[in-house]
Amino acid sequence: MDRVIVFDPEEQFDDLKGFYRAVDLADFLRVLEDCWDGNFRLIYVPQEMHEEAELHQVSRIVQALQEPYKLGENERKVMFVVDEAQDSFGLHVKPKHSGFGRIMSKGGKRGIDVVYLAQRPAEVSPRARGNLDRVASFALSFSNDIEAAERAMQVQGAGQMIQELERFHHVYRDENGELRIIPPT
């Protein structure tokens, strides 16, 4: 994908080649306004303890900039990657911080493809978990996380597969609802 935004609370994506790291929301917006009609790869690291509010703000910016896609004036999609989703879009997300929820519900109409990652899927808002067409899960320890992953996969028995995974393997449910175990590559 040529247009990528990574919301990176733990600064785990800093080593990605070809990505610009925005230092604050003003820098993030400036870069997007300068590059929106072309290709870009952008990492945004929110301030610690402000992840929820800043994910909301970043989401609102991305939605607004993708409005021409919704109106049929532009065909360019954007991939929006949100890491540590349990911290920035958790079970008790404040209603005033619902920008990412809107993307999860209506982002496809705006050409926004979302990838979110969470080590604790049970702690991610159901608004995000309930809107998935593909799901992958590595091994999980807590029963509530296993149950949440199985519900997201919408396939009975997925939880058992997750519990029995070998190291570095993952269970993948594709857009057709088929499950398979993927080994490390």
Order of helices and strands: EEHEHHEHHEHEHHEE
CATH superfamily of the largest domain: P-loop containing nucleotide triphosphate hydrolases
What is the CATH class designation of the largest domain? Answer: Alpha Beta
First-last Cα distance: 20 Å
Integer-rounded radius of gyration: 17 Å
- CATH topology descriptor of the largest domain: Rossmann fold
- Helix amount, in percent? 25-40%
Secondary structure tally, helices: 8
The domain count comes to 2
**Unreliable spans:** none
How much beta, percentage-wise? 15-25%
How many strands, what sense, and barrel or not for the largest sheet?
A: 5 strands, parallel
The dominant shape is globular
Q: Roughly what is the average pLDDT, rounded to an integer?
A: 93
DSSP E strands, number:
8
Can you list the strand order of the major beta sheet? 2-3-1-4-5
CATH architectural group of the largest domain: 3-Layer(aba) Sandwich
Q: Brief description of this entry?
A:
The chain has eight helices and eight strands; from the N terminus they run E-E-H-E-H-H-E-H-H-E-H-E-H-H-E-E. The chain has 185 residues and is of the alpha/beta class. A five-stranded parallel β-sheet has the order 2-3-1-4-5, with helices on one face. The chain has a three-stranded antiparallel β-sheet with strand order 6-7-8.
SSE diagram, text form:
Blueprint lengths: L2 E5 L12 E3 L2 H11 L4 E5 L6 H15 L1 H4 L7 E5 L2 H4 L10 H8 L5 E5 L9 H4 L5 E3 L5 H11 L4 H6 L6 E4 L5 E4 L3
Parallel strand pairs: 1-3, 1-4, 2-3, 4-5
Antiparallel strand pairs: 6-7, 7-8
